[in-house]
Structures are given as C-alpha cells and as structure tokens.
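Record 1 of the preview.
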Amino acid sequence: MSILNRKQSYTFSKYFEMGIIAQDLAEEFGYSFQREWFNLSKYQGELDELAKLKSKITEVLPYFDLSNETSRREVLISPIILDLVHYTHAQVKIEYQIKVTKQLQGYLDYLIQNHNNLLVIEAKKADLDYGMTQLVSELIALDQWQKNDQQTEIIGAVTTGTIWQFALLHRLEKQIKQDLKIYVIPENLEELMRILVQALI
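->
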C-alpha cells in the first residue's frame, strides 16, 4: 500500500514533518534500503587548517546556545563546509531548489559539487532519524536529476551540527545504505573532514 498520494505534491521537508521512516520512503520510490557499518574512504593528504578549525570550535562551543537551527548552522556546519571548499575547491549551492517530480522537490541545504556530488542537510529539530528520511528523499531526487553518469554512488550526510551520519545511494542497484556510525564534533572532526574531502576528489 502506497504511503503517498501520487496526486499530491510533497517537498523534501514535508517528509521530515510526516514522520515517515527512511526505509519506507526509499521503498516507496523503488529503492531498497539497509543499515550497516561503513568503512568510508578517507583522504590521506595534509589538512593544513584542521587544527585551527578544531581549536576554534572547541573554544567557542561553551558560549553558544545550540538549541536552534541557525546557531548550529553558523557555529558548526558552515565552518566545516568552508574548510571543505578550501581543500577541494568545490562549488557549493546553498538552499538550492530542484524539482524532479511533484513528489521529489524542494531545497537542498548544501549541494557540494566537484568531480562528484556531495549532499549535506541539517536535521530539523536535531532529529537524526527523520533527518535521514529527508536525506533519502533528496538523494533519490539527486539520483534522478543529475547528469553525471560516471558517479555510480552519491554520498549524503545529515547533521545536527554536533553529530554527523552518512548514507550512500548506489545508482545502478537502486539501493540506499545508512551508515550506523556517527561522527561527533569536535572529537571526530578529523575523521569526518577526511571522509568529506575524499568524497569530492
């Protein structure tokens, strides 16, 4: 039984609000879904700004109330994205609007493009579970929208600012996998940054 009304329009953020679990939404669009422990590739080169970024985040965290999305975006997410651009020279589109179908449309928080595409979204209300549902909808939309056939996998991340979690969409198999591992900021910042850099080069 379908969980969506095919005559109705839905946005990516609507799926978060509806409280649909990620697996059900993936299967609604014809993708399989599973959870497993990833071993994501990591960049092995020098990250010359990493120590400075970690020190700055560690220093300022006690002085910010992170209970709202704007605070989390400004203090934790944006600095990481800025450093990611420093290492990769990737193009970043923020709040980028796309429409694939009436059921796959809305704004992508961060669409980061280099040789590959990387999708980063902020989990509303710091809710990773339904944030993953929204990420699944955006990964599917990106799969159907983008023209880069050489990118056989699309990597996405959902973040509360202090916690990051990844998902992979395997395009040929129409399969989405959710990483069971989470990355905590600032403790796991280096590992996270090496994964993000490697995803784009």
